Amino acid sequence: MLNFFEDDLNLIYDNTKGILFDENDKTFFLTGGTGFFGIWIIMSFLFVNRKLKLNSKMIVLTRDKKKFLLKHGWIEDYREISFLEGDISSFEFIENNIDYIIHAATEASIKLNDEKPLVMFETIVLGTQRILEFARIKKVKSFLLTSSGAVYGKQPSDIEKISEDYIGAPVTSDAKSMYGEGKRMAELLCATYHKLFNLPVKVARCYAFIGPFLELNSHFAAGNFIKNLLNNEDIIIEGDGTPYRSYMYSADLTIWLWTILIKGKNNSPYNVGSSNAISIEELADLISKKDDSSQTKVIIKTKKSNIPALRYVPDVDKAMNELNLRIYTDLEACLEKTISFNKNILNISK
């Protein structure tokens, strides 16, 4: 598996070796290992750990190890990865020394947020409290929470990009706000543990991403459009196509997360994503052009109105200026790499 991603993993290595070179004989603890973020963290850890000969280890928390390995059986070939079975909100604390924790559990899920909002709340809030308590007991060197741009609530149409000092929030009278409010509470818990116990917490407010292992059957527009392309289907946009998003490639995301974990300021959130906005219609058009047969059409169901377009675009100057980060992969390459992966590895088109 790692051989397929050699170019991406070398990119991650080249841009993280300077911060990870002295992390010898350390133990990393990861939650959310089966998710999009988690699998990239695992792959990059294995690649950098071996290339730098760090002799470090990673423990991955999972509810079902067998199910995890059925999906990613190749991980069994790497002895530096071990598993702890348990639920994020109630897992048993282990005696191992832990140096770093990456808490990447609970990615955005509209289905879970709509159908089981209380489960979403428990997973985010109770899970974060549990892992923070674990981090406190282990006296970790750094703790990273993967939060979300959803903490800002709806982005005003007159604000082109949201920065970390924007004071906004989800609508509390709407049960669909559970994800965003849950992430806000998770951040607040991190701030509290930092204040009370001097825990070195780092927060990454993540936006939208494209890359291998992105779920194509979820609510992510980019994933849905790529699935349409691979299945030789027209791309159908139920709305008017005007909302703006921005997309960061998975390898770039991984560089940013490792850098924030090691070098980020404590209790000082960083937006993570691209600030290069593109409309949903433009994204669909771009993906449709990846069809060699030129058969894929973009169909927009809703007529455009005079209402200002919705936006979900971060200002990432803070991370770039403070941590010397940048965008390494342009959107064209993001799409080509993601489509190639799904054609060659997952065989989605068959």
TrEMBL record:
Q: Which Gene3D superfamilies match?
A: NAD(P)-binding Rossmann-like Domain
**Any idea where the NAD-dependent epimerase/dehydratase domain is?**
29-273
Instruction: Tell me where on the tree of life, at the top rank, the source sits.
Output: Bacteria
User: Does this UniProt record's set of keywords contain DNA damage?
Assistant: no
Xref: InterPro entries? Epimerase_deHydtase (IPR001509), NAD(P)-bd_dom_sf (IPR036291), UXS-like (IPR044516)
What cofactor is this protein dependent on?
Answer: NAD(+)
Q: Which UniProt keywords apply?
A: Decarboxylase, Lyase, Membrane, NAD, Transmembrane, Transmembrane helix
Q: Which residues are listed as membrane-spanning?
A: 28-48
This chain belongs to the protein called: NAD-dependent epimerase/dehydratase family protein
Q: Which organism is it from?
A: Flavobacterium humidisoli
